[in-house]
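Supplementary Methods S3. Complex input for the zinc ion-bound model.
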Amino acid sequence: MLVTDGIHLIDGVKGAHSYLITGSHTFLVDTGMPGQEYKIIKYMNTIGLDPMLIEGIVLTHYDIDHVGSAVKLQNYFTCALYAHLLEIPFIIGQQKRYGIKRWLPTLTRPIFGRLNLPKEITPLKDGKIFGDWEVIPTPGHTPGHIALYRNGIAIVGDLFQGGEIRLAPNYFTWDKKMLKDSARSVTERSLRWILPGHGPATPASSHWLDTLKRTLNS
Ligand SMILES: [Zn+2]
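Predicted complex, serialized as structure tokens:
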């Protein structure tokens, strides 16, 4: 589904959303659960996009429902994977995920298959990637969570949930204070669209933005 400005929310991907960014640079943000690579490639065929145009895959954070199909897609596109430096040890399996997330790859394996661990990830620095997309470190949900921002559009991973935009739930939050600080750093910007990992892509509205800002300041 085309959302806006050449940004597609890929239909039918299980787990978190995978976004396809097209235009002067073509890349993916997040990859859903393991086993979703065919849906993502099929979607590109449907819209007539040459998969070989994919320049890279940005991972907002280490959760299995975001990184699940990253290795298969990386191999298919022969492109780089990108994530924040602090997140890389978790994604490649050097460091254990926190809390229940440690067990999710095992618990979900009978349904989705094995989580393949990437061997190489390029660290994202604060600043720009793929032209004018800004990398915003947004720790809180996980230590090295990032959001991408350009021209009023924020791709936020699990910083917010879509619909009535809210903070991600506490029980999956690594550091609540950091989550709020990160949310502030995004809501301070001029916003037209919030593209979350879960829930609908959401046009910015003063109604929920005001409510959210009140929550952040409480
Ligand atoms: Zn998450």
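Helices lie at 37-46, 64-67, 70-77, 88-91, 104-112, 176-187, 206-217. The first strand starts at residue 2 and ends at 4.
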